[in-house]
Specification:
heterodimer, A: mainly beta, seven-stranded mixed β-sheet, four-stranded antiparallel β-sheet, B: mainly beta, six-stranded mixed β-sheet, 12 strands
């Protein structure tokens, strides 16, 4: 059974640019969550999507957005990048709509110069 | 407000020693879930356990065991006879409410180093 796949794994951007990260959940999983991990702030919840609808959103500025497609794949976008957006972005999937075991991908490491 | 505290930033033990990782949480909800995750150098978070607030039974899985005590708001994790492969960062996390779903609040993590 394939795990959660995140692309790209590594990327470098400059301030002011935008970036799109992709997450393919485990087959059959309908919920996808995104987390940001930084040395200073640790792991922080960004948002969660279930059946193409955003169900929960963390405390991040509007520059951070996401969406989910009908095949449950999800993308997150960060516009007008800032140095502080450098982080490991982790995606997790869960089978149903409730609370259960989150399966995480290996993450996309974004460096903003 | 919810909060998860892992007071131990780093722990080093010699292989085969037992080690306990502490986790203290705060929540106003009566229904909540607690988790432990392991993060090896590869970066992905590996699920270890999930506990709901109504189940205070301790759990043992091989060399791993968990002690959940609502009276002290603690959910501690013990590794028995540690091995080098246990070296990783371990995170405790909290999810609130019946529909808290996948909004996890993580602690700051404890970096465990097992010395051969």
């Amino acid at each position: 059974k394939a795990g959660v796949t995140q692309t790209p794994r590594y990327l470098i951007k400059t301030r002011g640019q935008q970036v799109t990260l992709s997450c393919s959940p485990i087959s059959g999983h309908r919920s996808v969550s995104w987390y940001q991990q930084t040395p200073g702030q640790g792991l922080q919840f960004l948002f969660e999507y279930f059946s193409e609808t955003q169900r929960n959103k963390g405390n991040f500025p509007g520059r951070f957005s996401g969406r989910q497609f009908s095949n449950s794949r999800s993308e997150m976008n960060v516009s007008t990048l800032e140095l502080g957006d450098s982080a490991l972005y982790l995606c997790a999937s869960i089978q149903g709509g409730g609370t259960g075991e989150l399966f995480f991908g290996e993450g996309s490491r974004l460096t903003v110069l | 407000a919810q909060k998860v505290t892992q007071a131990q930033t780093e722990i080093s033990v010699v292989e085969k020693e037992d080690v306990t990782l502490d986790c203290v949480y705060e929540t106003r909800d009566t229904t909540y879930y607690l988790f432990w995750y392991k993060q090896p150098p590869s970066g992905e978070l590996v699920f270890l356990i999930r506990r709901n607030s109504f189940d205070e039974q301790n759990e043992i899985s091989g060399r791993y065991s968990w002690n959940f005590q609502k009276s002290t708001s603690s959910f501690n994790f013990t590794i028995t006879a540690s091995q080098v492969v246990d070296s990783a960062v371990y995170f405790c996390a909290l999810s609130e409410g019946e529909t808290g779903a996948n909004n996890l609040f993580f602690g700051t993590g404890t970096r465990l180093t097992v010395i051969p």
